[in-house]
Design goal:
Length: 603
């Protein structure tokens, strides 16, 4: 039985190590290589040409069609010489920001001044292509730049949203990417919607009413006035376009790329998968689709009471990848001397859990909460998040919330853990008898196992009971890991002291004396204070357990705390804090039970 427990512990350890290498180290190294290649590309004398947007007035192939990506290009952007003495990463940021600012200033714009967003809408084409998120920054430094979500054509990585009409009749003049819209206001605010107007000069007047709420939701109402003598049929569409492969984390447990809910079912498509298939199309009654990052989302939300055809598309021009999520709605018949309208929404912002849940309930957006990748254990991860969020509102600190959540979990499994620790204490009391059996049958393993099983039955001891605390802790551990990893609420959430981001690893290292020595150790040596505390508590807990009789097994178990310390050192600090605190509570509970049963501590 001890051999089986040893094998179980070894398998768990090796399994976690392999998962760590597969889910963290390999993607991180690949991301690093990709970043080096990207920097080398950007340092070339001539930057790649910028793609133009789709031409919305192209004739679709059918009522469910949408314009295909156009491969025309704009002139190259003016080059900037590097600044001597400035780090390459800072120089790249400077170049990108200057190029983005230049692209914004090229066309007339309608300003966006929201409570949580700021930016502008291009009046050329009516694109939402300049958006910055207030309150979210690149790093924990309060002076670091705010998050830039959208950028226009001509910026280093264009990313924008666009709405319009398409038609089967190619003779109908529709607004396109070069259309210059007129506006009744210069600024869009939550209190003041704006109306864009364009007259095609052939009897059709197009209007677009845009409003925003106090967070990240745009409402787009498209109107068409038909002043001709015949009725026409138009199909509303919306699209999100992203040029170049964005920087992704590449983690197996996190989806980044194209995403949508069609007929109530979540569908996720990675960037490289779309590059293989080129086009993926779905027809749905209600739902949404868009492009997601770890923390940020761009989502098109068609009328939830109507059917639409959604598509994910990829186009490659030279070395520039272009990804597009789009939808085409049901046809709208616009009678002669009459008008018609349709309303859609677009989400552009941070994937805050309660906000997405609120939008889903308030606007009837089907399964909008699935934009946050809680994974297969949704039934466990989301409740854990809401408990932590409640504790945060109660205590004002997510780290304290993790500590309190750990106490609640220990209380919930208190009876089961007590039974387990009693069994382990009984095992420790039986060690002298087990040693005698080993001495009696040194060369007869079958007889030894039979005698030990008989001893367990006589003493009413379950040797497998000692594994229960570990087995209970594993699903909670991974659920909490998922919550810390995917929810933006944990991003840059401080604890106390040196932990300023619970979703990131402990920034200290014992190998530079926790910052006293001016040296940056390699990744493998970044063993911070909290991982050391976790390893120490694991070692202390191990001392309370019955030691294996085999000296080799004892040495293997002795090294496990060291292995776990190195293995978990680069996990989110909040997770390591949870594990260390859980160990402390387990030690206290086990020590109390052993004292009551008269078992020698550490014997």
């Amino acid at each position: 039985m001890e051999q089986r427990n040893l094998i179980l512990a070894a398998v768990l350890s090796v399994g976690i190590l392999l998962l760590w290498q597969f889910l963290y180290e390999m993607p991180r190294m690949e991301q690093h290589r990709s970043e080096l290649a990207r920097q080398a590309e950007l340092k070339k004398e001539t930057l790649p040409n910028k793609l133009r947007p789709e031409a919305p007035n192209q004739t679709p192939t059918g009522p469910k069609g949408i314009p295909q990506p156009n491969t025309n290009v704009l002139p190259p952007t003016t080059q900037l010489a590097p600044i001597p003495g400035v780090a390459p990463s800072q120089d790249l940021m400077r170049r990108s920001e200057i190029q983005r600012s230049a692209a914004i200033s090229r066309v007339k714009r309608l300003q966006i001044v929201g409570e949580r967003i700021k930016g502008s809408i291009s009046l050329n084409g009516g694109r939402i292509d300049d958006l910055i998120l207030r309150g979210y920054r690149e790093t924990v430094d309060p002076n670091s730049p705010e998050i830039t979500l959208l950028s226009p054509i001509g910026a280093p990585k264009p990313y924008y949203a666009q709405f319009g009409w398409t038609a089967l009749d190619k003779d109908i003049s529709l607004p396109n990417d070069t259309t210059v819209w007129k506006t009744n206001r210069s600024t869009l605010t939550p209190q003041q919607p704006v109306t864009l107007t364009w007259n095609n000069g052939k009897g059709l007047v197009f209007k677009r009413v845009i409003s925003i709420d106090k967070n990240y939701l745009f409402k787009i109402t498209q109107l068409v006035e038909n002043k001709t003598s015949k009725s026409i049929t138009l199909y509303p569409y919306g699209l999100i376009s992203r040029t170049d492969v964005p920087e992704t984390l590449g983690f197996f447990i996190l989806h980044e790329g194209l995403i949508g809910v069609f007929n109530g079912n979540l569908e996720e498509l990675d960037y490289d998968d779309l590059e293989d298939t080129k086009v993926e199309t779905r027809t749905s009654q209600g739902g949404w689709l868009g492009i997601t990052d770890k923390y940020w989302l761009m989502a098109l939300i068609p009328n939830q009471k109507e059917k639409f055809t959604g598509s994910f598309r990829h186009n490659l021009t030279g070395n520039r990848h272009k990804y597009q999520a789009d939808f085409v709605g049901q046809g709208k018949i616009v009678p002669a001397n009459s008008s018609a309208s349709t309303t859609h929404q677009i989400f552009a912002g941070a994937k805050e859990v309660k906000l997405l849940d609120g939008y889903s309930e308030q606007h009837g957006i089907i399964r909008f909460d699935l934009a946050v990748d809680f994974g297969w254990f949704y039934f466990l991860t989301k409740p854990i998040f809401y408990v932590l969020e409640y504790f945060y509102r109660l205590l004002g600190n997510f780290g304290l919330g993790i500590l309190l959540l750990t106490v609640l979990i220990k209380l919930a499994f208190f009876p089961l853990a007590n039974k387990s620790y009693r069994a382990m204490s009984r095992m420790k009391q039986l060690q002298p008898k087990m040693m005698k059996l080993r001495e009696r049958y040194p060369d007869n393993k079958q007889k030894l196992n039979e005698s030990m099983m008989k001893l367990y039955r006589e003493e009413k001891v379950n040797p497998a009971a000692g594994c229960l605390p570990i087995m209970i802790q594993i699903p909670v551990f991974f659920a909490l890991y998922k919550v810390l990893f995917v929810t933006i609420e944990m991003r840059h959430a401080p604890f106390f002291g040196w932990i300023q981001d619970l979703s990131a690893a402990d920034p200290t290292s014992m190998f530079n004396l926790f910052g006293l020595i001016p040296w940056n150790p390699p990744e493998i040596l970044l063993i911070g204070i909290w991982p050391l505390l976790m390893g120490l508590t694991m070692w202390l807990q191990q001392k309370l357990n019955p030691a294996p009789a085999d000296p080799i097994q004892q040495k293997i178990f002795m090294f496990l705390p060291i292995v776990f310390t190195f293995m978990l050192a680069r996990f989110p600090a909040g997770l390591v804090i949870y594990w260390a605190w859980n160990n402390i509570l387990s030690i206290a509970q086990q020590w109390y039970i052993m004292r009551r049963m008269g078992v020698k501590i550490g014997g």
